[in-house]
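_Backbone structure tokens_
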Amino acid sequence: MKANKLFTTIILLAFSFAIQASDSLKSGKKVIVYKFDIKEEIAPPVWRQTQAAFKQAKEVNADYILIHMNTYGGAVDVADKIRTKILESEKPVMVFIDNNAASAGALISIACDSIYMRLGANIGAATVVDGEGHPLPEKYQSYMRSTLRSTAEATHRNPKIAEGMNDPRIYIPGVNDSGKVITFTVTEAIKNGYCQAKAESVEEVMQKAGITNYEIVEYKKTTIESIIDFLLKPAVSGVLIMLIIGGIYFEFQAPGIGFPLFAAIGGAILYFAPLYLEGLAANWEILLFIVGVVLLLLEIFVIPGFGVVGIVGIICIVFGLTLSLVGSLPSSTSPVDLPSSEGFLKALTTVIVSVFVSLALSIYIGSKFLESTLFSKYILHTTNNTTKGHIVADTTANNLVGERGVAYTILRPAGKVMIDEDIYDAMAENSFIEKGENIEVVKFESAQLFVKKINS
């Protein structure tokens, strides 16, 4: 009885396609088939491209949408968004499985109105796993099974088979009696109503679908999308992290606001913007990075020494950069927004390596720059001595506590001060002190003068 119902459904679908194609032929108008590829891991970029593709398909008034698929799967939450988009489509959606439609790819394929497979292609194996290939807990599998069943019901396919692609406990005589999750070859998929026909090319898909007078319109990435995809590459993310850290390092080494700060800000924008647009970087993750930078600034320029505030700042910066690469933290309340531990560790490794490489390069480049001919004219080549009115702080400098003078250079927080026409190395106690401002010595500690700004 079920076999008869399934056969009737397939015949009705084929008949519907044939009527639409026939109407187009009679009117002399070409059938517009809008094609886009899913040939990568199912991730946020694929969801963005799917949205753009469906929008473009509507703009060109496409009669059909064809997905050219070859994927081993990916993020379940992204696949769920794509399958919902397909199920809500007003136009028929076909999928041509060129090689693989595994896991999340199987879910997306089942949502399509018709499925065509190349010889040697496979569909199925929809167990939810982590980044290391280990099955996730039962609540995630249960959610996936439910999604597979409801999708199969919506496209008039056997929901038990869809469920069996996730659950090896499902017993279907002649289909799944081996205690393994279901994965179909093209012949098996056709036999069980999960594939309309075998096809070796897009042209053959059109032929098998009964569409002869047609025009293929392919999805093309916009310039913005290409830029976003480029910026999301792990290598590029690593370079941007190096730019951020290097910019902050050089800004700390030079007085005033200059190019390094703008380079760091630009790097942060290029790093976080595409991640935010892809739904990976949440607002709080970006805020965590900003808080880390602020804490680090406070530690260096306001709070003497380097302690808890600086360490917390560094931790916030590292985790802000890392979490933005992997999306949401593991949640016990959501069955989908669960980044793998492997993904987090990869992101953390990328960030830490980039930070250390950036610091090493910054120190090396800084030392070479100081030795260069271009910078040599800014370096003091003479020795300050007492005959010229210069002295350095020594153990007698503790007598200067309470004395007043002026900032001989900017103190950020280290610099030089002038007291009674003598020059001393000093450290600002609480904040920046601009050159020429009045100062007062507040203490002498560890052979170092500490001063504060005074109004007069």
Notes: Residues 22-26, 329-339, 374-380 have pLDDT under 50 and may be disordered. The chain has three domains: 2-220, 224-376, 386-453. Residues 44 and 278 are 6 Å apart (CA to CA).
